[in-house]
Amino acid sequence: MLPITYAIRNLFRDPSRLIQTVGGSALVVLLVIAATALNHGMERMLETSGSNKNVILVGTGSEESVERSEVQLEAEAAASTAVAGLASPLGNTAASGEIVYMAPLGIVGGPEKPSLLRGVTEKALLVHHRVRILEGAFPRPGEVMIGRFLHRRFGVPADDLVPGTRLFFGRDEFRISGIFEAAGTVLESEVWFDRNDLAALTQRDSLSAVYLRLDDAEFDDVHVFTLQRNDLELSAIREDRYYDKLSTFYAPIRVMVWITAALVAAGALFGGLNTLYAAFASRIREMASLQCIGYTRRALLLSLIQESLLATLAGSLLAFTVALTFFDGIHIPFSLGTFTVELTPSIIMTGLITGVALGTLGTLPPALRCLQPALPLALRSS
Q: What's the whole-model pTM score?
């Protein structure tokens, strides 16, 4: 085996090649980390948003979109009385009829942004058990309660959206009554209206959905209710299953993230391979001389891999530093809400594996080509 110091010295023989190798591997690892973190953040938010104890009643044929659903007003009372075993904290049945609507919302001195609006009554707190009011109070007529991450949708500081601030929906003005959190769910980017207010604004006399929270009841009990009340034209779906379907709906976006990252990474990878081919091709005579004094081709191959691995791991370290500085903890808004990008241990491990693979598997083709010529030919090479 050649000493590791030989590989270290060779790294600095050509500073420009070293910079290209480190920079290329850093770009590839950074793209893999970014793509993995973005996909993981979106999936985790959608998984967190659904509860296996909640069931959503939507209009038949609208199982994939609550916003497009229409449910008769009497469905809320019918479900709360007909389905036995619903949660009843303090004697109040956990059945919440809600209006869900996507529309532009404006802030004072700022632009309008598409936001998810939810018309609710106080029973919503019985169903959406992750919701905690941080400041202020539940909205009354003429008021709204906002999720703690709504300000990120508008690109303004949190201090610009506090209780007492005014929001605009069309020509109507609403006072923010409170701010709530919901443990990393899509709800944290929503705006909650008094249900009657939102019904008047959207000119609808129906609900979007009825949310039920189960206690002793099972999903089949709710499903039987929808079959018994054909007049209401309802379909039941578990809340966690609903968000699983939304995750599938957003799968093409995640695929595009991976494709974009792969294309850019491929360009950097091929550029790095060309650099290695050129660098190793100029050392064919050197490799042959080392074989003449007793080193095996296997030992030389391992030394070349060590050399490349040191460079790619340095690039990986650079990628981790950039990711932790600029990516970790940032918030990415999309149509349903805002998710947080976090560099979890599994994501860091994915980046590390990528760096190691670049330094080993990516080095094999140029290294084997360098060691392939027979000794007489290699010694005569220029």
A: 0.79
